[in-house]
Amino acid sequence: MFKALKEKLFSARKKLEKTIEETAPEPSNTPEPVSKALPHSEPVPEKSPALEPEKKTPVGFTEKIVSFVRDREFIISEKDISDILDELEMGLLESDVAFSVTEEILSRIKKDLSGSKRKIGTSVDSIVKNALADALLGVLGEGVDICAFIREHERPVKILFTGVNGTGKTTSIAKVTRFLQNNGFSVVLGAGDTFRAGAIEQIDVHGERLGVKVIQHQEGSDPTAVLFDTVEYARAHKIDVVLGDTAGRFHNRANLMNQLAKIRRVIKPDLIVYVDEAVAGNDAVIRAEEFSKSVGMDAIMLTKVDMDPKGGAAISIAHAVGKPLLFIGTGQGYDDVRAFNPRLVVEDLLGDT
Ligand SMILES: Nc1nc2c(ncn2[C@@H]2O[C@H](COP(=O)(O)OP(=O)(O)OP(=O)(O)O)[C@@H](O)[C@H]2O)c(=O)[nH]1
């Protein structure tokens, strides 16, 4: 996953490590700390080998020397790393990371690294890796534990899917059904995309294969009525989760908004999940922002992440829209779905290639 992005991050990481290593004084030239050299000076308290939180920019020469001589530390200056950060900026943009997200990542890395004091002997790779990891986690957010969410809500939990047609919405509903079944939840499906020809048959086939009931009306019927019946069915049969398909497109945007407003009013969904495809890159992010502003959503599912080496949409979308990325689709099979876990993704992105 995200091979190209991983390579860019790896290259920036190694260059940052090398630069920081080179700005550190040679151990053999390291003078004795002031506390040892001058017996009457104040004892210098032992500090953690990690980066000091205290930041001072710009870093003056005198400050560098004082810090170095007294504390056997050296300070990483913004100048030391600026060329590499410029290169990383280009790399992120080329990987389809949204501009605002790229800027956020760089500003977090700069804030973390520049002006910070590094104790001589501290491992450079952990300093750099931590700075990159914190910056990426900062834009990816905390994520959502969907199983905990379901357990904490009154049953049936109602999750509706919407988004652009052709991006894999129906397959995604089927995959999430399998994911929830694997986690011990029962599911009923509502064929609420009554607008697109063939959508009802498509979800019906998935339901049959997965062994779950699909509530359906005729093509062109009122989606709110279909979803209302689905919720009633779930209540009557003590089913944990309703997964409702809804149309991603209507005759016009106002029509779509009115439909979703009606569904919201009547069904009161717990989550509206917007589905788009990672391969659309920055376009997926722009579409999601527009959809969020005009129609509204609570969470995002990105499909076809397996086909997207760039990874920009997956990195950017949650931060750009301000909603969590809930699931990623990683293939065409029912099991090719993962709950999006920002920590695991960052670990993967910063793993040695
Ligand atoms: N490689 C890959 N293919 C996917 C993924 N999700 C869906 N697909 C494929 O994308 C194609 C379209 O998916 P469908 O679920 O049929 O969705 P759709 O026809 O676009 O229609 P909507 O349901 O309206 O979005 C199918 O061939 C799916 O197998 C994914 O995560 N990875």
UniProtKB/TrEMBL annotation:
It is an enzyme of class 3 (hydrolase). PANTHER family: SIGNAL RECOGNITION PARTICLE RECEPTOR SUBUNIT ALPHA. It comes from Methanospirillum purgamenti. Involved in targeting and insertion of nascent membrane proteins into the cytoplasmic membrane. Acts as a receptor for the complex formed by the signal recognition particle (SRP) and the ribosome-nascent chain (RNC). This is Signal recognition particle receptor FtsY. Residues 324-337 form the SRP54-type proteins GTP-binding domain. Part of the signal recognition particle protein translocation system, which is composed of SRP and FtsY. SMART domains: AAA, SRP54, SRP54_N. It is found in: Cell membrane; Cytoplasm. It comes from the Archaea. GO terms for biological process: SRP-dependent cotranslational protein targeting to membrane. HAMAP family: FtsY (MF_00920). Pfam families: SRP54, SRP54_N.
